[in-house]
Amino acid sequence: MAQTRQKKNVIRVFEGFAGYGGASFGLKRAKRALTNFDYTIVGYSEFDKYASKLFDANHRDAKGNPIKNWGDITKIDPNDLPDFDLFTGGFPCQPFSSAGMQMGTEDPYGRGAMLGHIIRICRVKKPKYILLENVKGFTSGKFKPIHDQLVKDLIEMGYGTTEENTLARVVLNSKDYGVPQNRERLWMFAQLGGLPKNFEMKPPEIQSDLKMADFLDNTPEKYLYLSDEQIAHLKVKHHIDSFVVKTPLCFDVYNKKIKKDGYSITITQPEHNSLRVIEPPKKFGKDKGKEIVRKMSVHEQFRLMGFDISRDKKNCEINFDGQSYSQLSKRAGNGWDVNVVGILLAHIWRQL
Fold this sequence. Notes:
By secondary structure, this protein is of the alpha/beta class. The chain is 26% helix and 16% strand. It folds into two domains: 9-204 and 333-349, Vaccinia Virus protein VP39 (Rossmann fold); 212-319, no CATH class.
């Protein structure tokens, strides 16, 4: 008797604070890794016009039509939304980040209050699953009461009975999963009715010898390079004796040191201006022996955010929509490492 092929479980997804669609890119990876998994994005929320244009350039529904952007999450009436099984959201991290002002829900820009809108929507829609992301500072110090309120709200909404079976948490670092960026992010997952017994949030780490140098463009564009005067200024300002290196390394501007472990520091928004790439001096020609320092290219930033982009840039997983260096760097700094997302989602769904 022929075996009946099991129908794939199609997860309906609403992507909050979508950016370039980090959850969507991660779901594509999870779908490749799992045999009985499929998904559809039923809507997303993004109020930044450049971010939403980037999302639309990269994601369509099954019929090739644009996915509806519900816009500013603070103005969404959850009763108007289509039903969905999974809510994903990397709610703005600046209120809880060491790079931000650390003002939490008292953040004058209102970003810290965004978590309340996630709860407001999920309280009505009751998705079966919730996946949230933030910086690791969200669970510590003066922000712990906000985290504890999240757990309390989830219990009241039926996502568990205790903190342990309501909200799974783990801090994952990109460099532990094959991408040489030191990027620590807190991931939180809840399931309606409570988490499965013995649920383990952390995927097995992936051993890799790859370093930042392996993720750089073959031929970086000339505009990225600092002038001799700019390099001299950088040395004086940050008390650096020399930028002469034997292999490409990352200069941590914020901490004023060259990262000799071969990893990139965390990709951040361009206004933080936190890193530079140092290249070995040329061995021949008129520039022989000169120090070489430059900005990181857009393609390099997105490679370090887990995207499949060849070093000659001929094959690129993401459509950049012709956007500027500044806008795309902002998206990378605020985005999800899609490699980590795919690994995490596949790991979670294997246990459900």
